[in-house]
Amino acid sequence: MKRRDFIVKGSLASSAALYATSVLGYATQSANDTINIGVIGTGDRGGGLIPFINKIPNMRVVACCDIIPFRLESGLSRVNGKAKGYSDYRKLLEDKNVDAVLVATPFSTHSKIVVDALKAGKHVYGEKTMAKGYDGIKQLVDAAEASDKIFQAGHQYHSSRLYTHIVDEINKGKIGKITAFECQWNRNGNWRRPVPDPKWERMINWRMYKEYSGGLLAELCSHQLDFANWVLGAMPEKVMGVGGIDYWKDGRETYDNIHLIYSYPKGVKASFTCLTSNAMGDYKVKVLGDKGAYILDYVKAWYYPEGSYQKEIGEVDGVSGATLNWDEGKGMPVNFDHEDPSKQALIDFRDNLMNNTQPISNAKTGAMAALCVQMGLDAMYENTIVETKSKNVKDILG
């Protein structure tokens, strides 16, 4: 990448402004403008993103880092061309050939590594959830504000052009006044990764241990929390919830099922459920309004009109009751061509660096989702109602 200055002018904007729709397109740059990426953490997520980077013009992986040798070897094997391997991320950050890093390490390490990377002069794509704990969130936000480098939070659905289209339609009043969100992400399995040697248990299955992880809420529901914040342009006012280790009696510390309700301004309630004992419905987001609803999965969406409004649009060519394109229980499919959300998020990262633009999924929006996660964890673990007006939250949001 050419050694030019990338300066992000001004501090992070207000929450509502940060959720404005992006119009970023494909940058038209020369081969000399290739962005050299270092991947820190080459496990399931980091290693899984390398093939996407291989296919994106003007991006290439030149370095990988992981503390588990076979994970590092696996990551390097996925790279097109040659890449250096590191077991210490600090050594990778010293590599002058690396322009930007993708941080896909355990949740508890995000803040420290991202802050170090920004201070080392690297642009950063930081996987969700952005940071663990109130201190970690604040440290990362402060570092991003103080840096002239670009930070993008890895909530890939925020880059999905389908999700962006749905948000635009909601903002135009397509489903009327929003009253509720119903979100779920159910699986039938123990959520464990295979461990070739017991000594790697806590490193590989870090999601099962409170020291490193926020469990199902941080690893899965955080995407849907980010979406609810995006649609409403707001943080919830309070959260309550329960969870437990009720099915998998295998020594895990994080819950195997969670059920939370977040209360947003204007009376909007958002429920989030995640199971590991039953996969019915898999991943689903419902946005419910008084004129209709949108239902979204990973890459598809449906529009479900409500009541008399449903009857009105059902009169096709003047013939009442004419057949519409309709999926039972979901409504009318939303036909919208778009890239895989993870690939699109990386394309957006490239474009943000090329064009010196602020990501729509950035330190402030990432902090909002991370705060929702921490509030939910506090609510479940402490069996209490957690409010946004608490000092911990206000200190970060300002």
Automatic annotation (TrEMBL):
Tree of life domain: Bacteria
Gfo/Idh/MocA-like oxidoreductase C-terminal domain residues: 169-387
Segments forming domain Gfo/Idh/MocA-like oxidoreductase N-terminal: 35-155
Pfam families: GFO_IDH_MocA (PF01408), GFO_IDH_MocA_C (PF02894)
InterPro entries per record: Gfo/Idh/MocA-like_OxRdtase_C, Gfo/Idh/MocA-like_OxRdtase_N, Gfo/Idh/MocA_oxidrdct_glycsds, NAD(P)-bd_dom_sf
Parts forming coiled coils: none
Alphabetical list of PANTHER family matching this protein: BCDNA.GH03377, NADH-DEPENDENT DEHYDROGENASE-RELATED
Protein name: Gfo/Idh/MocA family protein
Lineage, uppermost ranks: Bacteria, Pseudomonadati, Bacteroidota, Flavobacteriia, Flavobacteriales
